[in-house]
Amino acid sequence: MLARRACTAALAVAAAAGLGACTSSQSNDSAEDFQGEQRRVAQVVEDLEEKGGTRDGGEICQDLLADGLRQSIQRASGEACESALEDALKDVDTFDLDVERVQVSGNRATVTVKGEGGGSDRTDTLTLERGRQGWRITGLGQ
């Protein structure tokens, strides 16, 4: 559904949204545009982009998603998070996310991701939370 946020769209599908296939033509590391904690948050989105490109639902579920989001995906899909994501990622052509804005407030962060899908620009929001294992995604495509 989104070029630069294709991973987000695919994950939102697996999370029970219902977004479609995505395409994109270029990639960049938008985490480099940030510093400090904002950069660490943006890097999680870049990691999502990279792991989405390899279509490895296992790595995304284990390395990037918070427990609550993994459980939501499992409940919505009726299958393991890894399997649900791998199924959803099959429909995504390429993964190019552009982190536009990062807001950090304590152990919570909000990331605005922009991309194009279906011929038009689209902006979505991801939420993250910092825990023992670092920043993890708690919400997609909101």
List the helices and strands and how they pair.
Elements (H helix, E strand, L loop, with lengths): L5 H9 L21 H18 L3 H7 L3 H11 L3 H9 L8 E8 L2 E10 L2 E12 L2 E6 L3
Antiparallel strand pairs: 1-2, 2-3, 3-4
Helix pairs in contact: 1-2, 1-5, 3-5
Task: Characterise this structure.
It contains 5 helices and 4 strands, in the order αααααββββ. The chain has 142 residues and is an alpha+beta fold. Strands 1-2-3-4 form a 4-stranded antiparallel sheet. The two termini are 14 Å apart. The model is unreliable at 1-9 and 13-27 (pLDDT under 50).
What would a concise description of this structure say?
The protein has helices spanning 6-14, 36-53, 57-63, 67-77, 81-89; strands at residues 98-105, 108-117, 120-131, 134-139. The protein is an alpha+beta fold and 142 residues long.
Key words describing this protein structure:
5 helices, alpha+beta, 142 residues
| Topology as a string of helices (H) and strands (E) | HHHHHEEEE
Mean pLDDT: 78
Low-confidence stretches: 1-9, 13-27
Largest sheet: number of strands, sense, barrel closure: 4 strands, antiparallel
| Count of individual helical segments | 5
